[in-house]
């Protein structure tokens, strides 16, 4: 037997011994990559389950069985083998270049659209080569026809193509991502979709669709970059006779209590002249702008009147002598068991104040400067546990009072906020002290109430 005639024997022996070894090696490699959750797991699995068996079958037909290469079954198998090779190359390229790219690199920033276009072009070129070498198809004329057709289509659709190209370049640069908030000359809202032609921005008035060519040719602001750096600026006007430092402290205190505020960034307030003040508040998200501004303007209306400041130049005449006397008679006197003489002594030193819904009435950890008696509305007492969570306590209704620790000069062990608009009577510390010094029984009663409330807070805090 001549060496040429016995060549099929070598191919058969190579397949018999080499194929199991290669499959075992690829299986172990696949398990190793799977345990490490590597991006190469899929390409190796494709190589083990499809490419190697197809290659072995192709060698068996051509080299061992010596079936002619022009046979239809061989060509079909070669076509499938070539297609699997193409898929393997694409999968390996995606795994090594893009999926394994470090964060922040240009490979990580390449949009999916670019990957899809590149994958489509490589598949087209690969299929062309397969049909050319396996089936003998002449593709030169096809490329010429496609080139001429592409020029004609490009001239016909130059506006649409221009938008697509602008969109591709903008997506490659990635000045924004899905979910970011943009402020453009035409809209302000959250990006919900970005495709080849346009960017879809969800605004408060509907869906704003901006073509990529328009967005690429104009300047816009990404309110979400850098993350959590968005700030809301609100301008308010006070009387020029109001002390600027008092106004600034009030604005900062009210802004600091907003639930939408970013906790680790303190708000700031500056005087702009002519009674105008600008307060800057860092928010968790641009989506909170509307709610934060509405809450701030509502709360500052109440707070300015409690501080005897003139928001928008207005005076507050709510605390009239008649209201003070009525609140003293119906709320304070029953709560503290006051005589008519004690009521008359306290009336000149009391005033009626108001709080807005959800506004903080008492800050935990601060020493109160007055006692507050609830005339209308309701207040929720809260405490903060060791892990920082806020736990609700009891609800104070009309006739109740808070701020007892003002007598002991100790920080309040509970916070309080208004569940609705609250009307209350406030009496400063020194006048309450004079009252309890004249009434020892009242001092004992207030001490018992302080201890009961402290016990409730400790039981919940633990």
UniProtKB/TrEMBL annotation:
Cross-referenced PROSITE patterns: CNMP_BINDING_3
Cellular compartment(s): Membrane
Cellular component, GO, one term: membrane
InterPro entries xref list: cNMP-bd_dom (IPR000595), cNMP-bd_dom_sf (IPR018490), cNMP-bd_ion_channel (IPR016846), LSM_dom_sf (IPR010920), MS_channel_1st (IPR049142), MscS_beta-dom_sf (IPR023408), MscS_channel_2nd (IPR006685), RmlC-like_jellyroll (IPR014710)
Keyword annotations from UniProtKB, A to Z: Membrane, Transmembrane, Transmembrane helix
GO BP term (any one): transmembrane transport
Transmembrane segments: 6-26, 47-65, 77-97, 117-136
Superkingdom, taxonomy of origin: Bacteria
Residue ranges annotated for the Cyclic nucleotide-binding domain, each copy included: 355-453
Pfam family, one: cNMP_binding
Full protein name: Cyclic nucleotide-binding domain-containing protein
Organism from which the protein derives: Mycobacterium cookii
